[in-house]
Amino acid sequence: MLKSFKYFFLKALGALLDVLPIIAVIFFFQFLVIQKPLPNPEKTFWGFLLVITGLFIFIEGLETALFPLGESLATQFALKGNFWWILAFGFAIGFSTTIAEPALTIIAGKAGQLAIQQGLIENQSPAVSHFVLGLRLTVAFSVGFAIALGVARIIKGWPLIWFVLSGYGAVVALTQFAPREFIGIAYDSGGITTSTITVPLIAALGVGLASAIRGRNPISDGFGLIALASLSPILFVMAYGIFNYGGR
Amino acid sequence: MMNSGTGWFDGIKSSLLGAALDVLPILLVIFFFQVAALRKALPRFRRIAVGFVLVIAGLGIFLVGLEECVFPLGTQMALQLTDASFLTKTNGGQPLPVLADGAVDPRVYFWIYMFAFLMGFSATLAEPALIAVALKARDISSGAISPWGLRTAVALGVAVGVTLGAYRIVTGTPLHVYISASYVVLMIQTYFAPKIIVPLAYDSGGVTTSTVTVPIMVAMGMGMASSIPGRSPLLDGFGLIAFACLFSVIAVLAYAMIAEKMEKRYAKSKNSL
User: Fold this and answer.
1) Whole domain around residue B166: which residue ranges?
2) Which residues does chain A have within 8 Å of residue B132's beta carbon, measured at their own beta carbons?
3) A124: pLDDT confidence band, cut at 50, 70 and 90?
4) In terms of CA atoms, which chain A residue is nearest residue B193?
5) How far is CA A25 from the centre of its chain?
6) Are B100 and B30 in a shared domain?
7) Which of B68, B98, B116 finishes a domain?
8) pLDDT in tens, A37-59
9) C-alpha angle with apex A96: A94 to A99, nearest 5 degrees?
10) What is the ipTM of this complex?
């Protein structure tokens, strides 16, 4: 009883320490720089309490569900030993979590508005919804592709540097040719694709695979899936823009 | 009072629903592959189910707190710090200094750079996805990679990136100049940094743009671009996120390079004794 209380206390203290810097910065600016009282101190108090409690519960869930799940899937797939099944799994996880991502739907909608404004597509609902759906499918496909490629990389032991150097080189090159309407959303989509729930699962999967396969180093081979998942949408969205609407 | 109570409740309900929808595709895919490929029941199923409930509940509660408290405060502060009356006040009541080309001297925005730096730093430390990656790195390196060390390095990178992004919005210089220059630095570092850390460094760059940092940066960028004369939120608000990503990778690589150098020096001094 005492032991579990101590465990609970330490974990809660950890979450408090994670949030404390933001609280300190907000108070510093509110009272010392702007020199005005907080607009709604009661709401601020409850808000911070929710942030700390939520983080504490999330980290508990991380260690009881997402990490063990990612590891046990990696071990099961490695035992099974079928290369293509693992790739298909990586693709499915990347594609399905991205296509369901609400932030992507919002951003694709905004890009649709911009495309109408610039006269790239007609202001009619089938044209717009076709544009938005095409964009969402492209991003989801690119994330699925990236995770599958990243999983293949871990299994084969290819160094990540190859992918990163050539990938970012291609980003710089494509930026010169892609239609302007696509550049902003391309860079933005790289950032929104990896959600807070997907990241721990994917990280555990990669590290688990690298630990289960002989000759792979969990640190240098296991990480890198998230890096590829943030890089590949930038490339795919710009390529999609050039392919469908022509280069600049 | 009654009213604000139901407001919290509605907020929690909708953000729990959002987190549950995030989890749904993952569960479907895992279920399909358990049945079709692995043909085995998930080990420790009950424990994992409880964990998923914790993940959804925790993330839901966390997001409500952010949306009700941290984001509105951050947006309001960014607006106040770029407001003409605040700038005149910090300038000692004098009219703002103007450069030869008619633009306001970028130095008067001192506090907005400080705000960008400190907000970027502290928001990154509270980022749940980064905490997850740092814990994973600690576990597999059996403690050699310290979670706070990694998170502080990423946070410093984000802080520098966001500050530079804020300076760019103030001065209105083109984004691609900064991005290309940082790419060159990053490529050189990638070549010279200890190979083992490169994937982790790039992963932390992808992770920094997540639940806490992105909304704060977007709000800050939009706030600044709309209150600074001559800037448009549509064109200039963008770019803070790209900077934060790039600079967090640069910072982690730099941290690893410095750590390696220190270790070599330490080993040398030990040998010479």
Assistant:
1) 82-272
2) 62, 66-67, 196, 199-200, 203
3) confident
4) A161
5) 26
6) no
7) B68
8) 888 888 889 999 999 999 999 99
9) 100
10) 0.87
